[in-house]
Design goal:
CATH superfamily of the largest domain: P-loop containing nucleotide triphosphate hydrolases
Radius of gyration: 36 Å
Order of helices and strands: HHHHHHHHHHEEEHEEHEHHHHEHEEEHH
Distance between the termini: 61 Å
Mean pLDDT: 80
Number of domains: 2
Strand content: 5-15%
CATH class of the largest domain: Alpha Beta
Number of strands: 10
CATH topology of the largest domain: Rossmann fold
Helix content: 55-70%
Shape: elongated
Structural class: alpha/beta
Largest sheet: 6 strands, mixed
Low-confidence stretches: none
Length: 579
């Protein structure tokens, strides 16, 4: 995403907070007014001191200085509060939209990216945008107003000095533009390098046991060092360009101050004794204004560098938000009163157009049938599950449920009619109760306990510290098998008309597996079931076994029929039971 597009995107997020922005701008005006009036009254106070002291006017000017300084401090505090609210509300809005976007993106987007990279966009990049906005609101408003106000007052008091300041001003703009034009690319490179390192660290932490098991600690550390070095170089380059802002603008500031001092001093000498002399008090006022005039250039230059970083991060966030969503199907009818008849007609699908996966796949499943899908790794078993659930849509052909093309109904209603237990058990960081009732939050306590008993999970749940109210998520709190049993209980509680079991008992010991198979047998009665299995001993009683290879059905039949054929299924079976 271009810098301009990222900037427009940030403005869209600021638009809802326009009232607070207006209030912050008013406070900025009040702050600048107070800061500009203080030197004016200070110059007046100095002019009250000569051969004699005009105590009456001096007292008035001193009170005025205190009053405007106090008012400026109060408005500065209010402005900071408003700026903080705006920045963090925008941060919350961006994170909310980014996270919400993930739920409507096709799975192909997440399948092609590291989870750590996506998490970096939501957490780190959004934080950088917020920091850039906060710095911008705090310093940009007051800086721009100060520059304009100082020039106006200088022109009103003595145009000659103002003209000198005005002539040097373009040098500051040139410096700021030169630096900002180079910092955006460097900060974007830094952001990408940071995301890559985060993704790698996330991946390695998740797989640390495997890394240790294969003694790859040194190799992993070497790869991390490479990514860390890339981030170090990118960060050093970004910070180098950003850090040149302060010394260069300070040099320009020194030029402005010297020019004002020289010009003011010459005017003071040349107008001495005239009707409207350029007094010492006015010279002091101008020197104070010179400092106030040049200080915002420092701040604006720093803001520009920080804002480039914010724009680079905003580009990644807005790029994710702008990703093409799954086509909406809210206007389509819902799938209701499902019996469980499933038909696949001429289905073709592949993740990569250059590599054919499933081609001309046809299958008819009657309601209540138990269909097992077996075959070597990569033959398309899990892909078939993805198609049945509409995680991906078929590229050719169609899939029907009770005679209805599943693309003509809502995904939500389709998935509500499937219960799915995957090989990789997933439980969120919440109580056991919340995990079990994810599919049926309105279920009764008795129904939840009954489902847990059927899944053989009730006994170990009762042994947990808080029973069903125990919060899960701590490492080692549950074994892999116990987690899988909870996932099975979660599906049993929903009791959908169709089931998908993708190697659902792979993490359960042999004794528990036998008990769970009995529970599954009870659960599967009268329901259409698709069972993806590698252990062929678990699918002997299936009504139909599909043997897949290279995305096609090469054999189909019952366990006995397939063994009698002496084909590919028999080879797979004998490979597992060679003894």
């Amino acid at each position: 995403m271009t810098k301009r597009a990222a900037f427009r995107g940030i403005l869209r997020y600021l638009r809802p907070h326009a009232p607070m922005l207006a209030a912050a701008l008013f406070c900025a005006l009040a702050v600048v007014a107070g800061q500009l009036l203080a030197p004016f009254f200070a110059g007046k106070a100095i002019d009250c001191i000569g051969e004699t002291v005009d105590w009456a006017h001096l007292k008035i000017h001193l009170i005025a200085i205190g009053s405007v300084s106090l008012a400026a401090a109060v408005f500065q505090w209010i402005m900071s509060l408003l700026n903080n609210k705006i920045a963090y509300r925008v941060l919350a809005d961006m994170r909310r939209d980014t996270f919400a976007k993930l739920s409507v993106l096709p799975l192909s987007y997440l399948d092609g990216r590291a989870f750590g990279d996506v998490a970096s966009v939501i957490v780190s990049d959004a934080e950088q945008v917020s920091d850039g906005l906060l710095l911008g609101f705090t310093q940009l408003f007051t800086g721009v107003l100060t520059i304009g106000g100082v020039l106006g007052i200088m022109l009103a008091i003595r145009w000659e000095v103002a003209l000198v300041v005005f002539c040097i001003t373009p040098l500051s703009f040139f410096v700021a533009r030169f630096i900002s034009s180079r910092t955006y690319k460097t900060f974007r490179t830094q952001t990408e390098a940071r995301a890559e390192e985060t993704a790698f660290a996330d991946e390695m932490i998740a797989g640390l046991k495997v890394v240790k098991a294969f003694s790859r600690e040194e190799e992993t550390a070497r790869l991390f060092d490479e990514k860390n070095e890339a981030l170090r170089k990118a960060s050093l380059r970004a910070v180098f360009f950003a850090s040149t802002t302060n010394p260069t603008t300070r040099f320009v500031n020194a030029l402005v101050y010297a020019a004002v001092a020289l010009t003011g001093g010459l005017l003071a000498i040349s107008t001495a004794g005239m009707g409207a002399p350029f007094t010492v008090g006015r010279l002091t006022t101008f020197l104070s204004y010179a400092n106030q005039y040049t200080k915002p250039f420092n701040e604006i230059s720093e803001v520009a560098a920080e804002f480039q970083n914010a724009l680079a991060c905003a580009g990644r966030i807005l790029g994710l938000i702008a990703e093409e969503e799954e086509p909406s199907d809210e206007d389509r009818p819902s799938l209701k009163e499902v019996k469980g008849e499933v038909a696949l007609e001429g289905v073709a699908f592949s993740y990569d157009p250059a590599r054919e996966l499933i081609k001309d796949f046809s299958l008819g499943v009657k309601a209540g049938m138990r269909v097992a899908i077996v075959g070597p790794t990569g033959c398309g078993k899990t892909t078939l599950v993805n198609l049945l659930m509409r995680f991906y849509d078929v590229q050719e052909g169609a899939i029907y449920v009770d005679g209805t093309d599943i693309r003509t109904v809502t995904r939500k209603s389709l998935r509500e009619n499937y219960g799915m237990v995957l090989q990789e058990s997933w439980l969120k960081t919440a109580t056991v109760r919340e995990n079990l009732t994810m599919g049926r939050p309105d279920c009764t306590e008795e129904e939840m306990i009954e489902a847990s008993k059927t899944a053989k999970a009730h006994a170990f749940i009762q042994r947990l510290p808080e029973g069903y109210d125990t919060v899960l998520g701590e490492e080692g709190s549950l074994s892999a098998g116990q987690k899988q049993l909870l996932c099975i209980a979660r599906v049993m509680l929903c009791r959908p008309p169709m089931l998908i079991l993708d190697e659902a008992t792979s993490n359960i010991d042999t004794r528990t597996e036998k008990l769970v198979q009995e529970a599954f047998a009870e659960l599967m009665k009268g329901r259409t079931c698709f069972v993806v299995a590698h252990r062929l001993s678990t699918i002997r009683s299936s009504d139909l076994i599909l043997v897949m290879n290279a995305g096609k059905i090469v054999e189909r039949g019952t366990h006995e029929e397939l063994l009698a054929k002496g084909g590919f299924y028999k080879q797979l079976y004998e490979a597992q039971f060679a003894h």
